[in-house]
Design brief:
Blueprint lengths: L3 H15 L3 E4 L16 H6 L7 E5 L3 E5 L4 H8 L5 E4 L8 H9 L6 E4 L6 H15 L2 E3 L5 H4 L16 H4 L3 H7 L1
Parallel strand pairs: 1-5, 3-4, 5-6
Antiparallel strand pairs: 1-2, 2-3
Helix pairs in contact: 4-5
Length: 181
């Protein structure tokens, strides 16, 4: 397994190849599930921060992780020496991801920010795209997953069977739910 520094170097090399100024790693999977399978724990893999909530952002020169107050102490410890700065989300002095990116990329010619569009909802992508354009004229690319290339020992996508919940837990039969949809 690579060190955080080696992971950042590999990511930044790929970012240069793809002409990206920044990449954003959320804490989600394609299903917006509560329990994220290991395959989609990219934010944890790239930063070393293993809390269940957070966003990592990497530019060619900087890196930061946003998380809420439940994780301030743990994140501070886990990010120490990693090259990532802790951004205490929810505090008035903490900039949003878009504000931070606008500041960091203000003096560069590259305005392309990316995230894996498969692990972000359409509403999240549209809101971020709007904020990035408004604040700094930045564009958002959603068609790249750098982890496919740089995470060489990435866990496989889960292939567990779907299990139907018993009626007493689900409250309604599956076929009725499907008919409603």
């Amino acid at each position: 397994m690579k060190t955080i520094e080696q992971r950042l170097d590999a990511l930044r090399q790929l970012m240069r190849t793809e002409h990206l100024a920044a990449f954003i790693f959320p804490s989600t999977d394609p299903h917006s599930g509560e329990y994220v399978p290991e395959h989609w724990k990219g934010r944890e893999w790239i930063s070393g921060f293993n809390g269940s909530a957070g966003t990592a952002v990497v530019t060619l020169d900087d890196a930061a992780v946003w998380t809420d107050s439940r994780y301030f102490i743990a994140a501070e410890e886990q990010l120490q020496g990693s090259g990532f700065k802790l951004m205490k989300d929810g505090l008035p002095q903490t900039p949003s991801v878009a504000e931070w990116l606008t500041d960091k990329l203000r003096h560069t010619d590259n305005t392309e920010v990316a995230l894996d569009g498969m692990v972000n909802t359409l509403n999240e992508v549209n809101a971020l795209k709007t904020e990035l354009r408004k604040l700094g004229g930045l564009t958002l690319r959603t068609n790249i997953d750098p982890l496919k290339t740089i995470w060489t020992d990435r866990p496989e996508i889960p292939t567990n069977s779907v299990e139907l919940q018993p009626l007493e837990l689900a409250g309604e039969e599956t076929r009725h739910k499907i008919e409603r949809i």
